[in-house]
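hey can u check if this looks right to u? its 263 residues, i copy pasted from the old doc so theres a chance i mangled smth
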Amino acid sequence: MSTLTLALRDSNTMLRRNLLHAWRYPSGTLNLLLTPIMLLLLFVYIFGDVMSAGIGGGGADRSDYIAYIVPGILMMTIGGTVIGAAVHVSMDMNEGLIARFRTMAIYRGSMLIGHVVGSVLQCVASVVLVGAVGVAIGFRSTDATPLEWLGAFGLLVLFSLALTWIAVAMGMASPNAEAAANSAQPLILLPLISSAFIPADTMPGWFQPIAEYQPFTPAIETLRGLLLGTEIGNNWWIAVAWCVGLIALGYRWSMASFKRDPK
């Protein structure tokens, strides 16, 4: 059996294991989904009229704000969903499963690949669910072409992959599941200080660099441009660069932790 065939077989086995675990214990994913959905409803129906004054030169209404906020909430959903990957990897580490897999004749990276692919699939499902809530409350993307929809989907998958590798690395480096969840919290908090809810240029001057020079803002602005026809500018390649960099960092960090001899 070739190395590639072995890698695909073992990775597929680990993927099925993680998907079965998510299916049997859906409460974790559902709890992570509640945050972006509640924020979406909160900012639209409670703060929508006030927040809409911060976009479109102050002449926007609630429907305009729904269009503005949904792309940001979709990216925030990804950040929240991947926390589950950090927790599950940490649990596998502490329960001795990864140590056991190290001694077995399986492809070395299949355990991590199973976690990563499973998390990306959960992110896609979560984004579809939150997107459906957005459509139900009035979000529309009538001007996007099929190619732009494909680009938006590709960006969401790429961003999911990038954040998942970082989350997996955090889980590998954490001493327990609680620490893994805490260390991955920035992945759901960063969107709160991005352009997800209001434009970065309406924030205080000292705060604008924090909102602009982070991975979520260029990804959100690119997604808005693809779905709503707004100006994308340099945001697309900055978003892709962030994703590639995070994937490389998360992969090397995860593999280094996986190959390290247990203490």
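The chain has 13 helices and no strands.
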